[in-house]
């Protein structure tokens, strides 16, 4: 009888271990010491764009992270807005590909069809978001696309751009308690201990969605009194808490200030314990940021609070 089961990337059959490396299978006999299989090589991934490259990088990175254990050398080629630049990109892809064991992977968000045709001449695996999605959308919407670069991240929508700038200015003015305390203008007010992710989350919400996000750091003053300041309780419906695991918080704090009480284990545990009490006392919704990226924290906040996005990425 032959049977097997899979754990992660290992498949066990009888007395042999079969390791799935994605493209080929290599079997290792446990009774032999010879484990002769190829070492993991670095693959080159290109991100091509006629603008900043943000969309290509985001799409490509999201896909590549699904292949655990692979190493990728990432190269971004932005502002490919002429035929000459497209040919230069092809030359660079071919040059690097010639020196690698494997052909490069090319993620492209070039809008102009003629530029896309040129870069397809490169020796690589081409993954083009516009080739994949524009034609089905054109058929569904019964409308010819404009093929105009820069509409996603450029200055074509001045109103959306200004909303992002205004929201960013608000986040900076109301960072860590700020000096303005314009909390009546805030869409959301993040509270938590120092280094729990408040500032980067506020800036992300502002830059990506035009959300007016303020933040306030909980300190010994709140912990000793067991109460929040009046100007916060007046905006209780806007409060959202950020929590973090003690070990992770200590690690972050030690990078900033390795010595002293600030990053000590007792102080960290004390602050997090008192923070939890405040969240429970005031019924403040919260999220544990320990294993979350800034993007995930922001999405959780927007989903939990129902705060409206003024702009879309």
Task: Outline the structure in words.
This protein is an alpha/beta fold and 313 residues long. The chain folds into three domains: 1-38, no CATH class; 42-141, Rossmann fold (3-Layer(aba) Sandwich); 158-305, Rossmann fold, CATH 3.40.50. The protein contains eleven helices and twelve strands. Helix 2 runs parallel beside helix 3 (113-119) and helix 9 (246-256) crosses helix 10 (265-282). The termini are far apart. The model is unreliable at 1-39 (pLDDT under 50).
Instruction: Give the class from helix and strand content and strand pairing.
Output: alpha/beta
Strand order of the largest sheet: 1-2-3-4
Rg from alpha-carbon coordinates? 25 Å
Tally of helical runs: 11
Helix proportion range: 40-55%
Q: Gap between N and C termini, in Å?
A: 55 Å
What's the assembly state of these chains? single chain
């Amino acid at each position: 009888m032959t049977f097997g089961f899979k754990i992660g990337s290992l498949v066990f059959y009888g007395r042999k271990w079969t390791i799935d490396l994605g493209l080929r299978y290599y079997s290792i006999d446990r009774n032999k010491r010879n484990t002769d299989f190829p070492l993991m090589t670095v693959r080159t991934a290109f991100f091509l764009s006629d603008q900043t490259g943000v969309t290509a990088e985001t799409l490509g990175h999201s896909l590549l992270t699904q292949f655990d254990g692979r190493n990728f050398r990432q190269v971004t080629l932005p502002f490919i807005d002429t035929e000459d630049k497209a040919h230069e990109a092809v030359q660079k892809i071919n040059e690097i590909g010639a020196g690698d064991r494997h052909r490069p992977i090319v993620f492209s968000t070039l809008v102009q069809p003629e530029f896309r045709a040129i870069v397809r001449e490169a020796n690589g695996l081409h993954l083009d978001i516009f080739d994949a999605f524009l034609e089905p959308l054109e058929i569904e919407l019964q409308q010819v696309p404009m093929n105009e670069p820069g509409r996603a991240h450029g200055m074509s929508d001045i109103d959306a751009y200004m909303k992002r700038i205004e929201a960013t200015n608000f986040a900076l003015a109301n960072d860590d308690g700020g000096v303005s305390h314009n909390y009546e203008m805030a869409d959301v007010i993040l509270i938590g201990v120092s280094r729990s992710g408040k500032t980067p989350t506020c800036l992300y919400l502002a830059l990506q969605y035009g959300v007016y996000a303020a933040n306030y750091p909980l300190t010994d003053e709140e912990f000793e009194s067991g109460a929040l300041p009046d100007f916060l309780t007046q905006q209780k419906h806007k409060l959202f808490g950020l929590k973090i695991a003690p070990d992770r918080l200590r690690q972050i704090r030690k990078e900033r200030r390795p010595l002293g009480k600030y990053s000590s284990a007792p102080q960290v545990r004390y602050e997090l314990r008192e923070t939890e009490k405040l969240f429970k006392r005031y019924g403040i919704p919260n999220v544990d940021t320990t294993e979350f990226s800034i993007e995930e924290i922001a999405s959780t906040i927007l989903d939990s609070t129902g705060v409206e996005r003024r702009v879309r990425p």
